[in-house]
Amino acid sequence: MDPIISLKLLNKWYGQKHVLQNINLDIYPGQVIGYIGPNGAGKSTTVKVLCGLLTDYTGEVQVKGIEVKKDPLAVKKLIGYVPELAELYDVLTPWEYLEFVAMLQGMEAEVYRPRIEKMLEAFGLQGNMYQRMDSFSKGMRQKVLLISGILHNPEIIILDEPLSGLDANSVILVKDLISKMAKEGKTIFYCSHMMDVVEKVSDRIVLIANGEVLADDTFEGLKERLGQSHLEQIFASLTAQGQTADSADQLMQAFETNNQL
Amino acid sequence: MNIINKGLLKAAMAPLGFYQRLGADPAQVYMILHTKLTLDDRTHNAMQQMRRKQNDKPATMATLGTMLYSAVLGLLYLGVFAIGAEGITRYTFYFSMFLVMLCSLLIADFTSVLLDVRDNYIILTRPVNDRTFLLARLLHILIHLTKLVLPMSLPGLVYTGIKYNWPSAALFLVVVVLLTLFSIFVINAVYLAAMRLVSPRKFQAIVSYMQIILTVVVYASYQLVPRMMVNMGETRFRMGEHWYALLVPSFWFGALTRIFQGYVTPYEIAGAIMGIVLPIVAIWIVVRYMAGVFIRNLTLSYATQENAPAQEKLIVQKKGLSETFSKLLSPKGFQKAGFLFAWRLSGRSRDFRMKVLPSIGYFVVFLGYAVYRTISRDESVAYPLKPSHAAIFLYMTTFTLLLAVTQMSYSDQWKASWVFYARPLQKPGAFILGAFKALTTKFYLLLAVPYCVLAIILLGPAAIPNLLFGLFNALLIAATMTRFAGMQLPFANPTKTNVSVSKFFRALALYGLAGLMGGFHYLISGFTLLLILCSLLALAALWLVLHSIANLGWNNVEQQEV
Question: Where are the transmembrane segments (chain B) (predicted)?
């Protein structure tokens, strides 16, 4: 089977800073990739390259055989992206916003209208459909953002911290949705810091730090190789190298110098 | 969407076939423009934001508001035609105001409305090509310009038609187009220079300072222009007779408008030619040299707009004025915390800056005017400095302080004030006193003390008793207002549009008291001994009020549910 996403020797600089270093990845249809790494590791940069937002990279980035640099529009049609920052035109209503997005994706009214309604209903937002989003909570905005990412039924879905701000029921709904979409053959690229969720939803985990891929395996494979039982511990052992324990000690030592208020 | 936006959208989308030939997707252009115009309708523009209160109703027809505001500005510019000077001078002043206002409005709107960074995530992640996106942005800018320029020029157009003749009015329209082209050049130059020198975030801060300066310039021009024009009328000053008028862009536009209005001087003819040629040259420069960079900023320049990862460079904390003054005035504890907190936030909160800083500008303009008159010994004008009236400017500075103290309570981020409620703060009064001292130092003493020095230099030691009493009296007024107008924690409350009746009357009574205190000073301003005695009394009263603020507990302080 041909990979749906293929990264070969991907490099990216921000000025003097080398943020992605020789990244090689082949992702196959129907896979759920947990893409994890510490802050500033290069996760969001990889996602932006995949989405065609950043084109000043070197190396080869192909989505379904299309080179992103050559035809970013064709790639954008295949991808549904939910960014980490809840950027919305919040003076619009969910209906207006989603209609705008649907039209930019080139969808027909008879397709997007019932779909928007059903999706908003599924997330419990049917009563807020015609309300401006500037009064919405973070979770409500996140739900609209999620819908905007999957509305056009894309083959690849890139989720950057999609559960941020969601209540417990919505978290269950999104997790369920991810596994159902994967079963239908959709590829999910899931970036998150929430290790327990990544551990459960991903069937392959890619760990990146300082712009380099440190590990690329299934959760079971990583457990076996590193002798740790939780993803959190695997993450710490590969990225922090004992730093977390040192930092905690350092924090405690700060009290010792002067124990008073 | 309102009828004006609908009409403009329809007009903008008329050359559909042309857009297609350009390689843009007309359906997407329409949708982006439609959404952008809806957003415009629901978002206050830069000028409206300056006057907006947080609890104001959400905007529904901001476009109409912008156009109305533009028309009112255009009407105000007509004021120069009522004052004694001849045609070309009037038109030069008129177009100066037009040009300055248009440029500043556009610069402000460029960063907040026209170059919306959210587009990076919302539009650029969708299958929208560069040409479609660029065309949509350019059309949006064009519609925005039309909405500003058309109503702003309408009063001038009608006035020119009625007062002179209709060919002149037709020419006036052409002049407005040329002036708009010239302003695009100016904005491009400012924008590009700024983009090279500072980050977009810093640029927005610079824009807010520019707005403050503009407010002060407008105020200064209201103070000075009528007098200047009267003087020009009296001395028969004619701009068209001086070569240096050609250095003023608004003179070119004035001269061009005047072509069909009878006799014109050779300089006016030269100005009129420059008015046609230079905007065209300017726009050629824009297209030839600037547009490339500007358009890159307008289009898919995600990579250039994208912030590089945070700098790893170690930034060392600098000891500033705040530390120095806090050591002197609020050396420790909660008072020091309040002092530093208010000093820092008052300098960094955009809302606070926009509301308070213009009043300092007004003071400087007023003072500059008075000092000039005192030095030039022109007795025919109001407000020359006299020893007995030297303190009047100290009371004027109090206006800035009162504004700062009142504004100190409010913030857009008032919910962050949970931090006060979550700490073991026994007497919030100490914190408020620290904040009061910070604002008094920053917005009163730093203005009043140099003023006192200047007044003593200009007027001699005779002014000292008046200045001393003025200084203490003004501080007492501000402290009394802080203590009795309803104690609030600094930057910890949402802006309220509805003030309770009791609060309103209390504030009114306090202002009345402040007036009485000022009036009392006026009555005794000639009696040195009495002034010295009252200074001591005011100082003692000030100490008492400050002490009472410091001892206030939670039951005296207004609290918010955060």
Answer: 59-85, 91-117, 168-191, 203-222, 242-260, 272-291, 352-372, 392-410, 443-464, 470-492, 504-523, 529-546
Number of C-beta neighbours around residue B416 at 10 A: 12
| Contacts with B, A 215-234, CB within 8 Å | none
Domain enclosing residue A99, as ranges:
5-242
Whether the Cβ atoms of residue B511 and residue B477 lie closer than 8 Å to each other: no
Q: Where are the alpha helices (DSSP H) in B112-199?
A: 119-122, 130-163, 166-197
Distance of alpha carbon B273 from alpha carbon B255, whole angstroms:
9
**Is the confidence at residue B543, as pLDDT, over 90?**
yes
Closest chain A CA to residue B133: A104
Given CB atoms, is A138 within the 8 Å cutoff of chain B?
no
Give the pairing type, strands A32-36 and A17-27. Answer: unpaired
Quick check: A105 and B126 CB within 8 A? yes
What digits encode the pLDDT tens for the residues B434-453? 999 999 999 888 888 988 89
* A141 found inside a domain: yes
**With an 8 Å Cβ cutoff, is A88 touching chain B?**
yes
Across B538-554, average pLDDT: 91
Radius of gyration of chain A, Cα coordinates, nearest whole angstrom: 20
From A31, A18, A40, select the one nearest A190 (Cα to Cα). Answer: A31
Cβ-defined contact of A53 to B302 (cutoff 8 Å): yes
ipTM, interface predicted TM-score of the complex: 0.76
Residue A178, domain member (yes or no)? yes
Kindly give the pairing relationship between strand A156-160 and strand A79-82. Answer: parallel
**Separation of alpha carbons B533 and B469, rounded Å:** 9
Residue B523 predicted with pLDDT over 80? yes
pLDDT at B306 over 60: no
How far is Cα of residue A30 from the mean position of the Cα atoms in its chain? 16
Whether residues B127 and A105 touch (CB distance < 8 A) is answered with: yes
Contact in structure between A92 and B39 (CB atoms under 8 Å) = yes
Q: Work out how many domains chain A is built from and give that number.
A: 1
Do you know the residue count of chain A?
Answer: 261
CB atoms inside a 10 Å sphere around CB B325: 19
CB atoms within 10 A of CB B82: 9
Residue that the structure tokens 């939803």 belong to: A201
Q: Rounded CA gap, A104 and A108, in Å?
A: 10
Q: Which residues does residue A81 pair with via DSSP β-bridges, in sequence order?
A: A158
Structure tokens at B160: 């020119």
CA distance B444 to B404: 9
CATH of the domain at A189: 3.40.50.300
Cβ distance of B308 and A89 shorter than 8 Å:
no
pLDDT band at B131 (very low <50, low <70, confident <90, very high): confident
With a CB cutoff of 8 Å and minimum separation 6, the contacts of B7 are none
How many CB atoms neighbour CB A199 within 10 A? 19
B125, A54: Cβ pair inside 8 Å? no
**Does residue A33 belong to any structural domain of this protein?**
yes
Q: Where are the domains of chain B?
A: 3-300, 329-558
